[in-house]
Fold this sequence. Notes:
Layout: H1 9-17, E1 26-30, E2 38-42, H2 47-56, E3 60-69, E4 74-87, E5 90-93, E6 102-103, E7 109-117, E8 123-132, H3 134-146, E9 150-153
Parallel strand pairs: 4-9
Antiparallel strand pairs: 1-2, 2-3, 3-4, 4-5, 4-6, 7-8
Amino acid sequence: xxxxxxxxxxxxxxxxxxxxxxxxxxxxxxxxxxxxxxxxxxxxxxxxxxxxxxxxxxxxxxxxxxxxxxxxxxxxxxxxxxxxxxxxxxxxxxxxxxxxxxxxxxxxxxxxxxxxxxxxxxxxxxxxxxxxxxxxxxxxxxxxxxxxxxxxxxxxxxx
Length: 159
C-alpha cells in the first residue's frame, strides 16, 4: 500500500479555492472575516447569478463553512441549509419563523422555476434552476482527501 504525501495547509487552501469554476453556481472564498478559514456558498455576490436566483424565486441557500486544523491534519466543515427571502434585489436569511434551517450533512436538491401562462389552463416553464448540495460538497471533500487530509463533519459544536 502506497503512503500518500500530505500537502501543506496553504496548498490545501489553494486547491479548495480552485474547486469552483466560472460556470458553477457556487463560489469558494476566504472566510477569515467571518471567523472560519473558507466558505463555500451559492454565488449571490455575482450579479448574473444573483439575478437568476432572484428571477426564479430561489427560497433556500446552502453554505459550507470550513476550518483547517493542521495539528490533526483535518478539515472540519459545517453545512447549513436555510430559508431566504428577497428584498430590493438582495437576499436575506429568514431567521424568525423559518422552520427549515438544517445542519449536518445535507443531501437535498434546491429547485426553483418560473412559469408563463400559454393559454387558459396551460403553463410553460421559462427558467429553471436545480442544484444538488452534493454538487458543492463532493468536489470539496475529494480535494481534501486528494491532498492527504481528513474531512470531519461538525453538526452541533463550534468549528
